[in-house]
Write a structure and sequence with these properties.
This protein is mainly alpha-helical. The chain is built from 16 helices and no strands. Helix 3 packs antiparallel against helix 5.
Length: 327
Amino acid sequence: MDDFLSQLDINPNANLDELPKQFASVMLFMQIDRHIEPNANEIRMFLRAALFLHGNLEIHGQTLEQKLKEYQQIKKTELNSILTKFHDGSLLDDVCERLLMTETGPNHILEIQTFCNDFLDPIRYLNILRRAQDIRCKESNIDEIAAEAKFLITTTFQLKTPRDIDTAIKRLLDNVNFDTLAWIINFNEPNTYFFMKCLIIQKEICSGLEHGLISENFIASMYEVSSQDETGLSTYIKCLQNKYFANSLMVFCINYLTAIGNRSLEVDKPDIMKHDLLHVSFLIAGMLSSKSECRVEFHKKLAAMSEELKLNDTSNLQIFNKEQNLR
């Protein structure tokens, strides 16, 4: 079928007696069932087929439509459905949406997005994604969190400039629930459209943690998700398997505890102290749990921090005693 489709074109001078035969074969191929599992190449084939139908109908108009209606090998109901969608401008949108509804369609958003960038305006593409997401989320066997995460990733990186993307990522961290962000942190499928995008968002999260600039809402949402039930706690513990994230969170917690323990900062507290002590304490408890892969490493860091605080207290005491002796 790939060879057949590769030979098809949209030609103003095409033989209109031959086109109905080609239409019949293409329409038979384009029976997109919800339960098929297309790969990337098959996705491109479906899109190429849709463009062939749309382009020829656009060029040859009523003459081709009449030829198609007269051709006995094309089912009238299927033809009427295609013609209706062509005339209301939804033929290409409908094919993209149906591909996203298949079992593996969402894994090949790159192919669909590339097609839409060439033939549809960005608003139409985002509407296709929203409709597909809404439909998939209503199905009991669809992972609603994964669908939301994929939609957010796609719309974020649809923006035109790096600055806009950076701003959108910061808004994600400030407004999106941690269970959705946890999907991004845990995503580890290198051969997909989403992998590099997830790494970029992960990097922003980890940088914010390490520098104490992470959103207050991000930490609060981590606490709310992980403390509400066993599923939420498991989601948090799973995130700690990502070593980059776990190390960054350890740095954040150590810096938070150090700020609390450093008495010289009581008046002028650092920005990291904006986070609720209860929230941070719960996250620390999760890292110290027996299920956490970073438990041993975090114990070591806490021990080192404790020793450093003791030295600081001793140093401050010695300075105080010298001042007293001078008096």
